[in-house]
Design a protein that fits this description.
The complex is a heterodimer of chains A (206) and B (446). Chain A contains nine helices and no strands. Chain A has 206 residues and is mainly α. The chains are: A mainly alpha (206), B alpha+beta (446).
Chain lengths: 206, 446
């Protein structure tokens, strides 16, 4: 029972620690005006609310899921710059914890922890502008979800649940592409994974 | 040296494949992707994450028999880095974020392997790994923090601001003088950065769905903006400019200068208020009647301005005699001004002209003759001006527009504006009803 609780709450506690770490680093410059993108995306929320149509009226080129997620947050929390910056922290911490879980499964806890800390620090560099609202943060999060599910599926012996995990992972990678164009590169990554996984079957087939 | 890549066409093509037509707001990005900038970008990002690159390389080299996972992230890492650095995007550090997951994973593996190897040689405890991790990442990121501190103490040249205070102050100003349904237009002439934040903080949207305008925006897009300004009677235009823009934006510039008047500066940000020459929102007992016209004329346009503590309760135009009735409340000594702007400059150098201004002021218990001043300014096309101040007479005023009365110092061949200011010196709260008929300027032959 104690072990089960520990297993459940360790990731949550780690998530909280990583969230605080990222927030602490970003608080150095979080309250400053960033580049054009953040204001631009938040204004798009206002325009969508005023009945303008995405792509046809509003000349922007990011994939639709990105605007959809923003719009949902806008509807819940309002068009507040600070809230959106904290959402970015939450997503970055989510990515870090999923990276930890992935590396833990592949290697060990230490590698996972180092990876998560490196990601938390580097993703908070002011050069990447990702303390403000950007497509990268959502995209990286969905990629990390897909990656985690994919690694889980590698370790799964039950073929049905393995298939389900691969399917969910594919959906997550598609979400990554629907939030940012460069998520497309993940499609290549996914294809290579399937080819490597199925190499013996393909060999037998040909 | 320029790379000839047209990103807008590229984007249009991408979206064409999913059957969505995109109206690109840009002209030709290719001209703005400078090769040197790409080189600088590459150097920046490599310097920033050099320790991670070294650790990643160590991870790859220390595992001769790669696992599937490693193979995949190598491909991802190399493919995405190549796409970012050599792909059709301008140098922008944010793109590097896309490879942070595989880079962090590889760096973690590299660091762990390095630690394991060192551990056999020198018997150190676990704090070694944590210390080296912090040092390595911080050293790598040091240049970016140095650049951040440099930027903080050297505010942006274009906007003159680096935090939200001025934007919030400006947005509050716009919010207090516009209704929720009003639209505003923010024009950042040089390098769009802070403009969209004004929409966000004020909660007002632009008249056309452009959140910003590229400095090299096409004439078609500039005309769309002008059409939007006309269509929605946009009451406030905010201009952010260093005055050094090399791009030709004359059409929009001229339109704003003709139809708007500067009301307030917030640092380097200038706020312009609409000159209501065609239609105006008439505030009558705090309700808005869009159908009323304040003054209609082909030769002259009128705008009303006031001192900060003065409130205009309503301004109403009678369509019969073309007079304007303004109910104004002065909370302390203040002024109300009427600006008449001529569509074509007036030449006062050869002929003698007289301004006929039928103006009546009513105020309970008020000795208008003593406490109200009338300032009349002649403004030439270079914005030089000369003033004449007279004590108000509750009647039609005739003012000869001559050099003899106003004095030299302005170009009488190109008079562009006549500015009439009513100033009260009362310390108490007073409410005045001012009725102004359309002014006449009569030529007098000698």
């Amino acid at each position: 029972m104690k072990n089960r609780l520990k297993k459940k709450f360790t990731p949550l506690l780690l998530y909280f620690i990583l969230f605080c770490l990222i927030l602490l680093i970003r608080s150095l410059y979080m309250w400053k005006v960033v580049n054009l993108n953040e204001g631009h995306y938040l204004t798009i929320n206002l325009l969508l609310d005023n009945g303008y149509k995405l792509y046809t009226d509003i000349p922007d080129n990011k994939p639709p899921l990105f605007y959809f997620i923003n719009y949902v947050f806008y509807k819940i929390l309002g068009n507040n710059v600070v809230y959106f910056r904290i959402i970015m922290v939450a997503f970055a911490a989510g990515t870090a914890i999923l990276l930890y879980e992935s590396l833990r499964l592949m290697y060990n806890k230490d590698v996972g922890l180092i990876g998560a800390i490196i990601f938390s620090i580097t993703s908070s560099s002011p050069w990447f502008f990702n303390y403000a609202l950007q497509t990268h943060t959502y995209c990286a999060f969905f990629v990390s979800v897909g990656l985690y599910l994919l690694i889980l599926s590698l370790r799964d012996s039950n073929s049905n649940s393995k298939k389900l995990k691969v399917l969910l992972s594919g959906i997550s990678f598609s979400f990554a592409t629907l939030t940012r164009h460069t998520g497309l590169i993940v499609a290549m990554f996914f294809l290579i994974f399937i080819l490597i996984e199925k190499q013996y079957e393909l060999y037998e087939y040909y | 040296m320029y790379l000839s890549i047209n990103l807008s066409v590229f984007i249009d093509k991408v979206f064409y494949t999913i059957k969505v037509k995109v109206n690109s707001n840009s002209v030709n990005w290719g001209d703005f992707i400078v090769f040197n900038k790409k080189v600088k970008f590459f150097t920046d990002i490599v310097t920033a994450t050099l320790p991670l690159w070294i650790l990643s390389s160590y991870a790859i080299l220390s595992h001769p028999n790669h696992k599937i996972f490693e193979n995949i992230i190598h491909i991802w890492f190399i493919g995405l880095t190549g796409l970012i650095i050599f792909g059709p995007v301008p140098g922008y550090h944010g793109y590097y974020y896309d490879i942070l997951i595989p880079l962090s994973a590889l760096a973690a593996i590299g660091l762990y392997n390095a630690y394991k190897n060192i551990k056999y040689k020198i018997n150190k405890n676990r704090t070694c790994i944590v210390t080296s991790l912090i040092i390595i990442t911080l050293v790598g990121l040091l240049p970016s923090y140095v650049s951040l501190i440099k930027n903080t103490y050297n505010p942006d040249i274009v906007s003159g601001i680096n935090d939200f205070r001025i934007i919030i102050e400006l947005s509050d100003f716009v919010k207090s003088y516009t209704s929720h349904n009003d639209k505003i237009f923010v024009w950042e002439k040089d390098n769009p950065k802070i403009g969209p934040y004004i929409y966000v903080f004020s909660g007002r949207v632009p008249p056309v769905p452009f959140t910003f305008l590229f400095p090299y925006a096409s004439e078609e897009n500039l005309n769309r903006v002008i059409k939007g300004l006309e269509e929605y009677n946009v009451p406030y235009v905010i201009i952010i400019s260093s005055g050094k823009s090399v791009f030709n934006q004359k059409i929009l510039d001229e339109y704003i200068m003709l139809h708007y008047i500067k009301v307030k500066d917030f640092g380097k940000i200038k706020t312009y208020k609409w000159l209501p020459d065609q239609k105006v929102e008439v505030y009558k007992r705090y309700t808005i009647d869009m159908s009323q016209n304040i003054l209609k004329s082909n030769q002259v346009s009128l705008s009303i301005a006031k001192s900060p503590n003065t409130s205009i309760l309503y301004a109403l135009t009678s369509s019969q005699d073309n007079s304007t009735e303004i109910l104004v409340k002065f909370n302390e000594p203040g002024w109300l001004s009427l600006l008449y702007r001529f569509r074509s400059p007036l030449d006062l150098s050869h002929q003698m002209y007289v301004l006929e201004l039928p103006i009546k002021i009513y105020g309970e218990g008020l000795n208008t003759n003593k406490n109200i001043l009338l300032h009349i300014d002649l403004v030439d096309s270079e914005k030089h001006w000369k003033r004449v101040t007279i004590t108000f007479k509750d009647d039609t005023i005739f003012v000869p527009l001559t050099k003899g009365l106003f004095g030299s110092g302005i170009d009488y061949q190109s008079i562009k504006e006549i500015h009439i200011a009513i100033e009260t010196l009362h310390n108490d709260n007073i409410t005045l009803r001012i009725t102004v008929k359309k002014p006449k300027i009569m030529k007098i032959s000698i």
